[in-house]
Structure formats: structure tokens, C-alpha cells
Amino acid sequence: RHLNLCRTGLGRGSATFAAEVIGDLISPGCCEYLTHLDLSWNLINGAGAKALAEAVGVHQKLETLHLAHVGHSEKYGWCCCEPRVAGCRKPSCRGNVQYPCLHWLLESLASTAGLQHLDLSANRLNQQSAAVLEAALLTNTTLRSLNLSENS
Predict the structure, then answer these.
(1) CB proximity list for 87: less than 8 A, separation 6 or greater
(2) β-pairing verdict for 2-4 and 117-119
(3) Disulfide check for 117: which of 28, 59, 64, 107 has CB 3.0–4.6 Å away?
(4) C-alpha–C-alpha distance, residues 54 and 27, integer Å
């Protein structure tokens, strides 16, 4: 029910591998009883961020998600619209305009089924991030606690 992958280096070598691991962990039919997941202090970017956002939106049992310091890298934290990440359909993304990877997750909060506790501390979330989060929380009815400490 609880899985701690904090500081395991997930995503440091390959965003595709991180996406596969995250997708497998949270996908329906696998780890369906997973209620607490800690991915803090890993590099969740590009495909990994997209997989996480999609999975969080559909996973019914996940209650607690720790994502402290996962989008901290200047090089990798703002990557979702670089040409190497295909399929970005965000209205704000045109061509090579960069879009914070964690914004995919923030947007998915609008449709989460059971997430109650979310830790997004130390991710350099900014005013744009706050606006994305605000829009998602207008329709989210399950989130009970949100840690945004150490963001600037």
C-alpha cells in the first residue's frame, strides 16, 4: 500500500524509463491497492511527468503523493514542450515554448479520483504555477492537504 522511491535516481538516466515505471506503478490493474507514493527528490520530467499526470487522474486508491523537489532542475524542470516530447496539446505551448512539467500534474488535479494529500514542496513553483493550481482546485473535491513550502 505504501511505496517510497524517494532519492532513487528515477528519471536521471531516461525520462522514458521514468514514464514507464510511473505508468506501471499507478496504472489500473497493477498496484491497484497503492495508497501512498513518494517520488520526492527524483527527476520527473517530460514523458515521466506526462505519465504521472495521466495516472494520477485515473487512479482510484492513491491518497497521498509526495513530489518534493522533482521539478527543481533548471535544465529539466521546464521541458515539456521541447521538440523531444511529442504530443503536447496545451494551449499555451506553441512550437518550442517551454511549459513547466509539473503543470501537467497540477492540471490533472481537477479530475483526481481519490488524492487527498499532495506534497509539491521545493519545486520552484511560481505565479504561473499558482494560477494553474487555482484553476484545478476549483473543481477538485478530494484534496485535503497541500504542501507548497519552499517554492518561490
Answers:
(1) 50
(2) unpaired
(3) 64
(4) 9
